[in-house]
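QA checklist item 7 of 12: single-chain prediction sanity check.
[x] sequence parsed
[x] length recorded as 839
[x] structure emitted
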Amino acid sequence: MTNHWIDLRNADVVLVMGSNPASNHPIAMKWIMKAKEKGGKLVVVDPRFTQTAAKADVYASLRSGTDIAFLGGMVKYIIDNNLYFHEYVVKYTNATFLVNPDFKLPAQLDGVFSGYDEKTRKYDKKTWTFQMDEKGVPKKDITLKDPNCVFQLLKKHYSRYTFDKVSSITGTPKDKLEEVYKIVGSTGKPNRVATECYAMGWTQHTVGVQNIRTFAMIQLLLGNMGMAGGGVNAMRGESNVQGSTDYGLLFHILPGYNPTQTASLVDLKAYLDKYTPKTKEPRSVNWWGNRPKYVASYLKAIFGDKATKENDFGYAWMPKLDEGMNASWLNLFDQMYKGKFEGFFAWGMNPACSSANSTKVRKALSKLKWMVNVNLYDNETGSFWRGPGMNPKDIQTEVFMLPCASSVEKEGSISNSGRLAQWRYAAIKPIGQSMPDAEIMNELYFKVKKLYQKEGGKFPTPILNLTWEYGEKDKDGRVKHVDVHKIAKEINGYYLADTYDKSATPPKLLGKKGDLVVNFVSLQADGTTSCGNWLYSGSYTQKDGKVINMMARRGKEDPTGLGLYPNWAWAWPLNRKIIYNRASVDPKGNPWDPKRPVIKWNPTKINPANNKPGVWEGDVPDGPAPPLADEKAGKLPFIMRADGVGAIFGPGLVDGPFPEHYEPLECPLQENPMSKKHRINPTIKLFYTKEGGLPEDVFFSCDTRYPYVGTTYRVTEHWQTGVMTRHKPWLLEMQPQIFVEMSKELAADKGIKSGDKVTVSSARGSIWAIAIVTDRFKPFKVMNTTIHQVGIPWHFGWQFPEDGSGGDSANILTPTVGDPNTMIPESKAFMVNIEKARG
C-alpha cells in the first residue's frame, strides 16, 4: 500500500476494483465504511455483485480481463473534461517530458508500440526514451502542448477509448461508465481525494501490472498520490505477504528490493554500476543512489567478518541467475515437469491446489526424487502421489512431512498490507512435534553445514561463511534454539566500527561499534555497517543506550487526527505511513488540502538536526530536504525515482510505456476490438504454440466447446486453498464444497437449477461443482454478442474432507500463462463450459 488501512477513512471516493474487501478483508472494510459515514462515495467495479458491491453507492459490472479498457476510458474522460490537477501534473509528473519523436503508439502500428519484434515477442525500447538537453536532463514543455510531450501522447493514446468502444469491450453500460468516471474524476482538485483498493482481481491477468499502472497514472493525473485518503493500495491476501516480498521471497530480488545478482556481473562494482541509478536532475533525491550502502551492509550481515573490502564483501559467494533466466512460479513447475529438479521444499504452500493448471503441477511433482512438505496439515501437495489420476506404483518421489508451528505458536513480526511491522508474542507452545519455521531452518542449516565440512562439495564457501549468531550454541557450535530477537536485530543492522558523518565539520559520530544502527540513513558502503534489510533499518534500534523493539510498541496517540498512530508498531520506511508524502504539499511546502495535512513545511521552526530554521511537521517526510520552491536545496517529491517525478510515461515495463487493452489468453472474441492484429498481450510467454508444447498447456479461445468466461475468487469462510479452514468443522459446515455461481439467464439456457451438480470443464481438465443460480452475475453485451461469465472459489481440494465431498481445485481449469513483467498466472479470466453432471 502507498497508504495504509486506517487511511481509507480519509478518502472522499473509494474505488474498489480488483478486490472484494467485505468478503476477504472484512476487518479492513470498516475503514471504508468510516469514509462513507463522513460522506465519501464507495464505487465498486466487479464482474460479480459482491458483498462489497452491496454497500456501494455505485456498482458497475465488467467482463473479466477488460480493466484497462475501463480505466483507459476514465483517462480520456478526465483529460477531455479538464478534470486533472494541472499544477500537480506539471510540477510533479513526467507529463511535461518530451519523448523521442520516433516513438509510435499502438494506433499507428496496429496494436503494438514502436520497437516490437514478432519473432522474439519482445520490444527494443530505443524509441521509448526522452529528449535530453545539453545537461542530460529531459526536455520539458510546461504548456503540455508539444505533440511529443507525455501529456499529448497520453491524450492521443486514450482518445480511442470512447464510451462506445469501452462499453463494447467491457460489457459495462455507458451510463454506468460515465457515472463512475464522473465520481472518480471529481477528485482532481486540492480539497478532494480518491483511493483505490485492489487485490488478485487486478494482478492475476496477462496485463496485471499494467492494470495497476493504469490507475496509478489516473492518481497522478488527479493529484492523489501522497495524499491522505489517496494512493493505490494493494490488499494483500495474507497478513505477511507484504513482509515476505520485502524480505526477498521472489527469485529476482534480495531483501529490500535490491536486484538478484546475474552471472555476467562478475564483481560488486559491475553489479552496482548496472543497478545504481544515476541522474543529472539537480532537484532529484534519487534515493536508490544509496544502493551501494544497502548492498554492502547486507553482505556484511550475512557473511560477517568473512566479508571484507578485499573480497568484495563476499559478493562472489552469492548465488547468480543466468542472463535472462526467469525462475518464477510457472517456469519453475514447467522445468520440474521436464525433470530438471531432483528435490523441492513446499514450505507453507499447497501448489497442487493454488497453482494455475494444477494438474500439470501435480504431474510435475511426480518427476521429483524427493519433496519436503512443511505445513500444519497434510495436504494435496504432500499426498499428490495418491490423488486423482495418480498410480503410486509409478511415482518415484519420496515425500517427507515436517509439521510446523502455526502463527499463534511462535514469536516474531508480520508486515501487513500497509507496510506496518507488528511484533507478535507466542500465545501457546507448538503442539506435538511441530516446530517454528526458524527452528526447522536452524536444524537444516547445521545439518547441511556439517555435510559440507565433512565432504566438501562444488562450492562450500557460501554455506561455511554464513553468519548464524541467532542463539546460544552447544559445544559443536550449533545454535540450540533460535532467538528471533537476534534475527530482528541483524535485520535492523549494527555499527561494526565507530561510524561518523564525514560530511559534517567536524565529523559527527553516528554510532559506536556494536550499537544497533539508528536507521538506514547511517548505513555505509565501506563495510562499517551491517543490515539484513535496509527497509527495516530502524525497526529494532536503540536510543541513549536503550534497545527498543519499535515493532512491539502499542501507543495509541494520534496527534494529526488522520489515523497515522506513529507510536503503534512501526512502518517501513522510517515509520512513514504515507509514501511520497512530499507530493501532498505545493512547491512551497503548504498542504494542497489544509483539512488533511499529511506534512507541512514550517520555515521558522528550528530543525534539531542542524540547528537551522526549517522543518517538516506531521508524518515522517520523504526526506528532510526543503520543498521544491527552495531554489538552493528544494527537492522533487518522488524520491525513489531518478528523475524525481511520478511516471505517467513508464518505459520500464516490458509490454509498453502506456497500458493498452489486450484480451486474456482465453477469451470469447476472435479479435481484439482495439487492434485486429494483436488479440493478446504480444509480450507474454506462450507455453503452448502451433510449433508445439506440452499437452497440459493447451488453451482454446473463441471456441464453441468452451463458450463461457470463468473466474476464481475467495469466500470469507475459507483461507487460501483451505488447508487450515477445511479442517475446522464449523467453517466447513458453512462452506462445505466447491460451487459455481452463474446467472439466471445462463442457468435457464442450460436447464440448471440451484443445487444441481454440474461439470465445469476447460481445455486443461474438468471438475464437478454445485450450481448456485443468482442475480449476482448478469450476462454482458460484448461486441453485439451476449457473453456469460461464471465464478468458482478456489479453496477446495480432494485430500480433505477425506470422503471427497468438498470437490477439487478450481485451478484445474486455469491456464499456464502469466503477466510478462511478473509471470503471475492469469487465473481471473479463462474459458469454460458447464453441463449438468451425469448420473
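[x] summary fact logged: The longest helix spans residues 437-455.
[ ] second reviewer sign-off
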